[in-house]
Design a protein that fits this description.
elongated; 9-stranded mixed sheet; binds NADP nicotinamide-adenine-dinucleotide phosphate
Length: 443
């Protein structure tokens, strides 16, 4: 078996920015000569699956023979063929044989029969000579297996090529597959002094059209969105994915919607309870919620009875257990969209992995509502720290995205649950979380 590591200092000779060049497949004209160049193209293919592949990862693949791309593929949607198989089919359609070719694939090929046959078998059967892999399978049960299987079949394997962007591309999937809880992003649009609404609760719109479009893109990539009841009462948001009229992504993807509402105050005429996606709404209540209101809500939307968080003692819903339930429902990524109390609950409990904050060049002053409220942190040393911080200008506004907390935090608080039972729907276990799930499941 031959496994070769990534030449990390190799400088790419080619920066493919024009997709039409790529579409032609003939790459010799464009000097695509090394593994990093091809992997970069494969990553671009993988990104085409953004918002569509969950609960599977985004994956791209290229077949290359004598410097020419003879086939390309990406994973379009869960249940459809994997990227490698798409690339084989593409080559065949164009009259090329994959025998003797190099396969570039952004994620370690699957080695187990799942909903689709193992890709390692297909690679061996196709007579591939060399496989160049980006990121390693994050699932500890499978990680590295493909290298061994392909190596045993005397296929040369190179791995770790553009590992970092490949891993980052699927950070939500990677988190979910290891922890079995969704990857949580807290998103907020605020003034420069950190206010998300006026004292009277007015918040539409703090940021401009471009920032709001970027926020929509976040929804497109998420499986579910969550808001607190005060936000529903103040704004009556629809919390849907609404593609821009000019957007290439006009598909009708919709997300699940969750409302933290321990007392079942969600108005029966609110958008989340009455629009065409009401079946995707879940109002999360506590067992103390008034039965009449709960019954009325349960006729329109899903109602989930969640336990209260014993550590706060304030009757707040237990978010940690809620996240476990969401993970068991194959929700790999959750976008938390406020308001301030909700944002604070996720951030202060260490339950968010990423923040995306939009800053408008506006100031509201002391009476405005704070983006992250709650009890606050007394000592600077205890401040929630952000890393991998990126800033981008979007129209007049700034978009900041960052990972939350020290890497060590996740190790302490989220022990991986991989093992027996992981990967199966956990509905049978949901009682152990003290949760009840589904329309009319209220007691
Ligand atoms: N600019 C923006 O990006 C943006 C986005 C969203 C909202 N907003 C604004 O934010 C304001 C509302 O924010 P808010 O801080 O007052 O309230 P919120 O976060 O929308 O809702 C908080 C409420 O959710 C319920 N809840 C249940 N469990 C919870 C838990 N574990 N953690 C937190 N909340 C829990 C509680 O009500 P119960 O006790 O009744 O269950 C709590 O009072 C509105 O003015 C809205 O316009 C702005």
């Amino acid at each position: 078996m031959k496994i070769v590591g990534c030449p990390m200092n190799t400088r790419p000779k080619f920066n493919a920015t024009n997709d039409s060049l790529f579409m032609g497949h003939r790459t010799s004209l464009f000097n695509v000569t090394n593994d990093m160049d091809f992997m970069r193209l494969a990553l671009r293919l993988a990104r085409r699956g953004y918002g569509a592949t969950s609960p599977n990862p985004m994956v791209g693949a290229l077949l290359v023979k004598s410097g020419t791309i003879i086939g390309r593929g990406w994973h379009h949607r869960a249940g459809l063929p994997h990227a490698e198989i798409e690339a084989f089919r593409d080559a065949e359609k164009r009259g090329f044989s994959a025998r003797g070719a190099t396969l570039y694939v952004t994620l370690e090929p699957c080695s187990m029969q799942g909903r689709t046959p193992a890709c390692t078998d297909a690679i061996i059967a196709a007579g591939i000579r060399r496989v160049v892999i980006g990121a390693t399978d994050p699932n500890p049960k499978h990680s590295g297996r493909a290298f061994e299987i392909l190596g045993r079949a005397r296929i040369k394997v190179v791995h770790g090529i553009l590992n970092d962007p490949g891993t980052r591309l699927n950070e939500a999937f990677n988190h979910w597959i290891v922890h079995r809880t969704p990857f949580v992003t807290v998103k907020a649009a605020m003034t420069l002094d950190g206010k998300i609404a006026t004292a009277g609760g007015e918040s539409k719109w703090i940021t401009g059209a471009q920032a709001r479009a970027a926020g929509m893109e976040l929804r497109r990539g998420a499986d579910a969105v969550l808001a607190g009841i005060n936000t529903i009462l103040a704004d009556d948001p629809s919390l849907t994915f609404r593609p821009d009229r000019n957007s290439k992504n006009r598909e009708q993807k919709q997300l699940r919607r969750f409302i933290l509402d321990s007392r079942a105050r969600t108005p029966l005429n609110s958008k989340v309870a009455t629009d065409e996606f009401a079946r995707l709404t879940t109002v999360v209540i506590s067992r103390h919620a008034p039965a009449m209101r709960v019954a009325a809500l349960a006729r329109r939307v899903n109602v989930l009875v969640a336990p209260e968080n014993p550590s706060t003692g304030r009757g707040e819903l237990d978010l940690r257990r809620l996240l476990k339930q969401l993970g068991s429902e194959n929700i790999t990524s959750l976008l938390v969209e406020g308001g301030g109390e909700t944002n604070a609950s996720f951030l202060s409990a260490g339950l968010a992995q990423r923040v995306t904050f939009f800053y408008a060049p506006k100031i509201l002053g002391a009476d405005g509502r704070t983006a992250v409220s709650g009890g606050g942190i007394k000592r600077l040393a205890d401040a929630i720290s952000l890393r991998e911080v990126e800033w981008k200008k979007v129209g007049e506004d700034l978009m900041m995205t960052a990972r939350v907390g020290a890497a060590g935090w996740e190790r302490e608080n989220h022990r991986p649950v991989i093992g027996r039972g992981a990967g199966k729907p956990l509905s049978a276990q949901s009682n152990s979380y003290g949760l009840e799930w589904g329309r009319g499941t209220v007691k």
